[in-house]
Amino acid sequence: MKKHLFLIYTIVSLFIISCSSSSNDGEMNQEPDQDKPANDDDDKDDDKIEPFKLSDLDPNLPSFVSIDNTTPDNMQWVKVEAMSDEFDAWDGDKWENSFWNYGGTPVWMREENSFVEDGKLCIKATLNNDPNWFQTARVHSKTQISYPMYTECSMKTAKISAFNTFWMNNGDAEDRDEIDIVESNANPIPDCRDQSNKPANFPWTPWDFPTQMNSQYFIAKNSIVENRHGNYDTRMLSDANPNKGKTWDEDYHVVGVWWKDKRNMQFYLNGELAGKVTSSQDFTRTLELIFDLWTAEQCNIGGLPQKEELNDDSINTMRVDWVRTWKLEAK
Q1: Cystine design at 123: which of 85, 105, 215, 318 (Cβ 3.0–4.6 Å)?
Q2: Is residue 174 a contact partner of residue 220, using CB atoms and an 8 Å limit?
Q3: For all residues of the chain together, what is the average pLDDT?
Q4: Which of the four pLDDT bands, split at 50, 70 and 90, describes residue 223?
Q5: How far apart are CA 62 and CA 79, in angstroms?
Q6: Cβ-based neighbour number of residue 147 at 10 Å
Q7: Of these residues, 27, 152, 183, 288, which one is catalytic?
Q8: Are 244 and 207 in contact (CB under 8 A)?
Q9: How confident is the model over 15-44, as pLDDT tens digits?
Q10: In Å, how far are 77, 143, 163, 189 from 311, measured between CA atoms?
């Protein structure tokens, strides 16, 4: 039984934990501006970014190296082939499925819903009978990695109300390290998008989900969860960026994380810095890469899609063009 099995029972509650008053345990690293993008104006100067095409970025290095190279002196990026793939074919030496299901949702994970097609890793949502009518898949790397490292992928989301995710994890609901590089939903349901029926203190922004980059981390030790996130957005990209303002299902977006050390991570979107987070505890585990597609009725996920949408192959599939991973090593 896979090490993530315990997430079955608590995954939805953890989203509530991450946004609610868990400050009683003193472990939540909440700040007054937590829901604002975690970017730093001193680290991003639009004037120095020249117009570019994503296809022109050097595929042999992290995308930001081609735009604003902040690689430390005397260090170099060394590609990790076991955690990189152009998806010309399914590589069983690199990837595997897991089959635990998110508790309290209609999600049902199955191997058949992940496959490689036309040079893309596809994770497809299909319709099943009640109660687990949302058939989908989850794909893990067989290799794990630790800091200092960088990973990124080029992905285009399904156009249904579901979380399309690229994340890193090791552990279970009560004890784990987790980095959520992106959780995106290009088409949350109308009721979740409607701001007029939300209280002033509503903790999520599903109306922004079509362009919003939900990135965060979790450290769970002895059932106490620390979490911090920063919600960047494609509309915040520089004018030089070809994907500025594009929705997640409109085009392929490059999303990545530079896991710098035991407490610091930097997120990237289409080659540009998209925020920083610093944990108050140490990350202590090696992590694997994970892709999945799933849904839930809560508005922090975006709400449940219409069942008939799962029969529409033009909108029901998350696609990953490639994933590339590097270690940062001394020259």
Answers
A1: 318
A2: yes
A3: 88
A4: confident
A5: 10
A6: 18
A7: 183
A8: no
A9: 433 333 333 332 323 332 334 444 444 455
A10: 43, 34, 18, 17
What is this structure's pTM?
A: 0.87
> Is 183 one of the catalytic residues?
yes
Q: Which of 152, 178, 226, 288 is catalytic?
A: 178
End-to-end CA distance of the chain: 41
Quote the pLDDT of residue 47: 57
Question: In the chain, what are the domains?
Answer: 7-330 (2.60.120.200)
For the cut 70, the answer to whether the pLDDT of residue 321 exceeds it is: yes
Distances 191 to 159, 196, 201, 203 between C-alpha atoms, Å: 17, 9, 17, 15
Amino acid at 94: K
Q: Which residues of 56-67 are buried (b: 16+ CB within 10 A; e: fewer)?
A: ebeeebbbbbeb
